[in-house]
Structures are given as structure tokens and as C-alpha cells.
Design brief:
By secondary structure, the protein is mostly helical. The chain contains 9 helices and no strands. Helices cover 70% and strands 0% of the residues. Helix 1 (8-23) packs across helix 5. The chain is elongated. InterPro entries: Homeodomain-like_sf (IPR009057), HTH-type_TetR-like_transc_reg (IPR050109), HTH_TetR (IPR001647), Tet_transcr_reg_TetR-rel_C_sf (IPR036271).
């Protein structure tokens, strides 16, 4: 057990995360962050060279957090069938009830990154997505081997998986829970209709 108090750098990141979530990148200044931490603004430069660098470090940190949680979810599904595994991954990206502040920040940044940081964030995001894709494809290929999914449709499945989960993430900000759950069910069933064999379609809700 670690009883050490958080470092100043960790306190800066925690304060920045909260402020970026509430006010966005443009609505948050280093002086706002320093005030929340209880330090002078120049003290931040002992740990982060700029607001841009702090934002990017937070983005990298929350990617690692999210990957760890996604892989923990994967391990919990080890005894499930391939359709249930892929559904678990889908639910992971469209549910938000148990999201940490870091995961919420990650999803918000995916949807609306600061314009001048898009290129740098895109590189980190693509590395993250490649890891997730490896897990999704492992679920899908297991389903192909067991006769649940059609072969030669991997790229289309990945594209629709992200289009559906990203769209539902946006809709979560607009619609009530009942409508959102109905949309989620329909999107998932559409994935099965397109890519599952008759055996896999037997699991359509």
C-alpha cells in the first residue's frame, strides 16, 4: 500500500483534468490550474513546459488507463463465447455509468480535440486503436473459427463497430436513457445481421 501523498506533478494533472473536463482546453488557463492546486503559475513550468504538453501528457495517461480497463474487461470475458466477447467490447464503449474522469476526458478529446493538437493526438490515438483492434479481431476470428461470423469481413466489421459506438457516444449527450438503449440494441443487432452467420444471428436480441 502506498501512503505517499501525491506529487506536485500529479496534483497538477488532477486539477488540469477536472478543469479541462468542465471548461475545455480553451476555457482553461495555467493560472486556473495553478489556483486549483494552490501554487503559483510559474511553478507549473518545473513539471510541464506548456499547457499543450500538459494536455498531451494527460491524454497519454488516460489512454493507458483506458487500455488497462479494456484488457481487464477482456480477461473477465475469457470464458464467454465470441459473440458475447464482441458484445462486451461494444458495451464498454457505449456505456458511461462507470467511466472515470480520465475515461470521460479521453472520449471527449476523441470527439473534439483542440484543433492545433489534432496531429499529435492522432498519432497517440492510432497507437491506442491498433491495440484495441487486435483484441476485437481476436474475438471476431474466434467467432469465424466457431462458425458465428462470416470470414473476409474484418475491415467492414471494425469500421461499423467504431461508427456505431462513436455515434452512440454522441447520442448519449442528447437522448434519454430509454431511447439510447433502444438505439444501442438496434446498432448491435445491425452488426450481427451484417457479419454473423445464421448461427451467430441466433443471438440477435
Amino acid at each position: 500500500m502506498n501512503d505517499q501523498p501525491p506529487s506536485t506533478a500529479d496534483r497538477i494533472k488532477a486539477a488540469a483534468l477536472s478543469l479541462f473536463l468542465d471548461s475545455g482546453y480553451n476555457g482553461t488557463s495555467l493560472s486556473d490550474i495553478a489556483k486549483a492546486v494552490g501554487i503559483k503559475t510559474p511553478s507549473i513550468y518545473a513539471h510541464f513546459e506548456s499547457k499543450d504538453q500538459l494536455f498531451q501528457q494527460l491524454f497519454a495517461d488516460v489512454i493507458m488507463e483506458d487500455l488497462a480497463k479494456f484488457k481487464a474487461m477482456q480477461r473477465k470475458l475469457n470464458g464467454a463465447g465470441p459473440v458475447a466477447k464482441l458484445r462486451g467490447a461494444f458495451d464498454y464503449y457505449v456505456e458511461s455509468d462507470e467511466l472515470s474522469a480520465g475515461q470521460t476526458f479521453l472520449r471527449q478529446t476523441f470527439l473534439l480535440p483542440p484543433r492545433h493538437l489534432r496531429a499529435a493526438l492522432r498519432e497517440k490515438f492510432l497507437q491506442y486503436e491498433n491495440e484495441i483492434n487486435g483484441i476485437l479481431l481476436a474475438f471476431y476470428r474466434e467467432g469465424v473459427d466457431l462458425g458465428y461470423f462470416r470470414p473476409d469481413t474484418e475491415e467492414q466489421m471494425i469500421a461499423l463497430f467504431y461508427a456505431g459506438s462513436d455515434g452512440l457516444l454522441v447520442e448519449r449527450q442528447i437522448y434519454d436513457e430509454e431511447l439510447l438503449n433502444s438505439r444501442k440494441k438496434e446498432v448491435w443487432n445491425a452488426i450481427l445481421q451484417l457479419f454473423a452467420t445464421d448461427k451467430g444471428k441466433g443471438q440477435i436480441e
